[in-house]
Design a protein that fits this description.
Blueprint lengths: L2 H9 L3 H42 L5 H9 L7 H17 L4 H24 L3 H29 L7 H59 L3
Helix pairs in contact: 2-6, 2-7, 3-4, 4-5, 4-7, 5-7, 6-7
Length: 223
């Protein structure tokens, strides 16, 4: 069946089935736009984390690194975790805070920064889960409605044949196909991106633990 035949089935479908197809097409386009955007965002986050870790462990003075980041309008990712932790450390260090309080507050500040970064990475991601879980059922609704109309049309003829009912059923099945077309990429992308965000979370948390150990040693070295 060629592309013209598929187009004929879509244009010849009932208004309800056409509405279902339009909804599924919109959901598919929105999910694909989000898929490309999230792929770019997560790729940039991973590369930025790798670059910052290399810079952090290169032996650069932490105070200089903090001042460089403070000049920026916005810091994100692992840089934001470092920035929040060092800012809290510097504030308490100047106040001669006890080591226990210093470690607790720095850890809390970095935890808040990690949570904020994960929220940014998770933003709009539930849309993919929604499209993946609901699109097949929306398509099934269009299919059921189209088949109902096809069989209702048989009540107006004296002799029912396959040639009479087949076009209506074919129109209805297009809705199911569109539902699956919208759902499958969304589910695959959601699972993949969720896994990548989990790996970034573990990476941020591991960095925060290592950074906290460095700050604790730095606090103990204070004369």
């Amino acid at each position: 069946m060629g592309s013209n035949s598929i187009l004929d089935l879509i244009t010849g479908a009932s208004p309800v089935v056409q509405a279902v197809m339009a909804l599924l097409l919109t959901a598919s386009l929105a999910s694909w736009a989000l898929i490309f955007r999230k792929s770019r965002q997560l790729g940039e986050a991973g590369r930025a984390a790798e670059a910052f870790e290399a810079r952090f462990w290169s032996g650069i003075d932490l105070a200089d690194l903090y001042r460089q980041l403070a000049k920026r309008e916005e810091v994100a990712g692992m840089e934001a975790v470092f920035f929040a932790g060092y800012r809290e450390f510097a504030r308490l260090f100047r106040q001669n805070a006890p080591a226990g309080l210093l470690a607790e507050n720095v850890e809390r500040a970095m935890g808040v920064a990690i949570g904020r970064e994960l929220d940014r990475l998770d933003q709009h991601l539930p849309l993919l889960a929604t499209v993946g879980s609901t699109s097949p059922y929306v398509g099934l609704f269009g299919t059921v409605w189209g088949i109902m109309n096809a069989f209702r049309a048989l009540g107006h003829v004296q002799q029912a044949t396959l040639a009479l009912v087949a076009p209506g059923i074919a129109e209805a099945l297009v809705a199911t196909a569109m539902g699956l077309f919208a759902a499958i990429p969304a589910v695959i992308a959601y699972n993949r991106y969720t896994s990548r965000i989990d790996r970034l979370e573990r990476r941020y948390e591991r960095f925060a633990d290592e950074f906290l150990c460095l700050l604790q040693r730095k606090a103990l070295e204070k004369p």
